[in-house]
Design goal:
Distance between the termini: 56 Å
Number of domains: 1
Number of helices: 13
Shape: globular
Strand content: under 5%
Radius of gyration: 22 Å
Number of strands: 3
Order of helices and strands: HHHEEEHHHHHHHHHH
Largest sheet: 3 strands, antiparallel
Structural class: mainly alpha
Length: about 350
Amino acid sequence: MALGMVMLYSSIMTAKGAHFLMLQGAWSVVGVIACTVMALLDYRWLKKSSIVLLLLSSALLWAVFLPKVGVHVKGSSRWINLWICNFQPSEAAKIVLIVVLAWYGEEFQKHIHTFKRGLMLPLCLAAAIIIPIFLEPDRGTTILLGAVTIVMLLIAGVRWAYLAPPAALGAVALGFVLMHDPVRRARILSWWSPDDHKAGVGYQSWQAMLALGSGGTTGLGLGNGRQKMGFLPEQHTDFILSIVGEEMGVIATIAVVCAFILFIICGVYIAWHSRDVFGLLLGSGITFLVGMQAFINIGVVTSTLPNKGLALPFISYGGSSLLTMLAGTGILLSIARHGRASARREEDLDETDLRSTQYA
């Protein structure tokens, strides 16, 4: 997050950049408070609120289509106007979906191997969040949440034979929609043949590659990047990693990748050592969400994947995304804290049993 604040100011070294920095700083304070609160609370309270959170999240997602409530930018309706700032409900919906699926996986664990309880009902719950996001339209978040749903259902114990056909059908349907969407089809074609589209649809990706390449091993120096001087659009949001590579070099870029890998390792460890099934699914979902979103963003910046429009967690500009990721991190810390407490209690009980046996 600190790296994101530095690179945000460096990527827009103007009065507008200072304004963005102040907004991101305010969201950081709110996010750290949310992270601290979630870490101190017992994560199991989310089970009792899962349905309420689902209904509230779904209502907010549909509210973006209401006039004078939703904000329509560049052909998409993804934000709600809060007058002070804009809020993106799809970011909060990511955590809500994970909470709902984790609750369902624990509540119906005995029936998770059946077709109805194991597949149909959880897919209906996921659809309540994914469908309005698809209609915004936000294809990148749709793909991300679809992948999160599949992974969480597999961890919960849903059979491959039940999950594979709808997953394949969804992938085919999404591919059909993308190829019949002029904007998305153009992005895919520009990714497939970047040299032919570097002056048009693929301009942003091409400039990002130039930024990464010009940085070399150690970079041009903080603040000395050239691509931010009007060449690379939206350099402070989805493509901020290219500015990191240009100004701080491939060493810093690899360090960012390693930081996300370390985050994933820690998240998997926390989920594996959780005290219950709900913690296992919740921790796994949050870890996969952060890791998968980072993977997609890095893939887009390096032209490994077509342009999706997903933020780099903790680093890209965007208050809603930062708040969501920090809240999710707080939940992970809560799972870890209660997992350690449960382990200590088990050790104490084992020692008590051993002493009782020795005394007997």
